[in-house]
Write a structure and sequence with these properties.
The chain has one domain: Aldolase class I (TIM Barrel, Alpha-Beta Barrel). The chain has eleven helices and nine strands. Strands 2-3-4-5-6-7-8-9 form an eight-stranded parallel β-barrel, surrounded by ten helices. α9 packs across α11. The longest helix is centred in the last third of the chain and has 23 residues.
Length: 287
């Protein structure tokens, strides 16, 4: 297992023009985690496997960290274990204790100066430990907010101001996508991605990808996105496949047979993602 922080992978990927898949294993779900790692290994893709903070409520930070290490023990691809949407320093410290190598601190719903100060506090806390830090600006809204709000976008000026005030490793920017379960999303602003990419130093992160076509994912990488997050679609499809196989598979009431079939189907979805971000065969490109 080659364990790195996300800055190490993303700086090199950004320089070489491909993306890094950042795949959420739903807070330490065995089958989703196994599908992610097997797909990355089979396609020799560098990988960020991450856990969304609320998803860790059931299994816990320590369990998730141990599970990922167990599943990835024999993998040969560069790997990052990441906290997604951490909301406070306590959660960040719990992730660090559990062996995570990258943390996102999400203060995007706060005024810019509070986001800057809070992010810098986290950088001061974990950077000496070799852990990279991601921040968000523009507050990518949730689907529950979508009826009353337009999908957010951040300005180039805001991105420049934020990165001038805090030396963050990765920057998540709102470019017209929304967190939630969607069949389709068409609001991604590729021109804005390109402008922000040209204006700031840190590699950019795309959140809220459920329903975004694989063609648009590829276009977003070409426009300047590097870390591409996937979460809702993975868990939605896993549940759909599990339900399907529980009805159609001759499983003889062995749960593991249903889970294995769902895992194998999900793995094919993940391979599509890896190909779309351009990371297939790029494991050897990470030095």
């Amino acid at each position: 297992m080659k364990l790195y922080n996300a800055k190490h992978l993303c700086d090199q990927a950004a320089a070489k023009g491909f993306g890094i898949p950042a795949l959420n294993n739903n807070g330490g779900t065995y089958d989703i985690g196994r599908a992610i790692i097997e797909a990355a290994e089979e396609l020799q893709s560098p990988l960020i496997i991450q856990c969304y903070e609320p998803n860790l409520e059931y299994r816990g930070f320590d369990y998730a960290g141990q599970l990922i290490r167990f599943l990835a023990a024999d993998t040969t691809v560069p790997l990052v274990i990441a906290l997604d949407h951490g909301k406070n320093p306590v959660s960040v410290l719990r992730a660090v204790k559990a062996g995570f190598t990258h943390v996102m601190i999400d203060y995007a719903d706060r005024p810019l100066e509070q986001n800057v100060r809070g992010t810098q506090e986290i950088i001061n806390l974990v950077s000496p430990l070799g852990i990279s830090v991601e921040a968000e600006i523009g507050h990518i809204i949730k689907s529950s907010d979508a009826s009353s709000q337009r999908a957010a976008t951040v300005s180039v000026a805001e991105a420049k101001e934020f990165t001038a005030k805090v030396d963050v490793d990765l920057l998540a920017v709102a470019v017209g996508t929304t967190h939630g379960i969607f069949k389709e999303q068409h609001g991604i602003d590729l021109g804005l991605i390109s402008k922000i990419h040209s204006a700031v130093k840190p590699p950019l992160v795309l959140h809220g990808t459920c329903g975004v076509s694989m063609a648009d994912i590829s276009r977003s990488v070409k426009a300047g996105m590097t870390k591409i997050n996937f979460g809702e679609g993975l868990r939605m499809n896993y549940i759909r496949y599990f339900n399907e196989f529980s009805q159609t598979l001759n499983h003889e009431h062995h749960v593991w047979r249903i889970a294995r079939a769902a895992k194998d189907r999900l793995k094919e979805d993940i391979k599509e993602i890896i190909r779309a971000v351009g990371s297939e065969g790029k494991a050897a490109a990470i030095k």
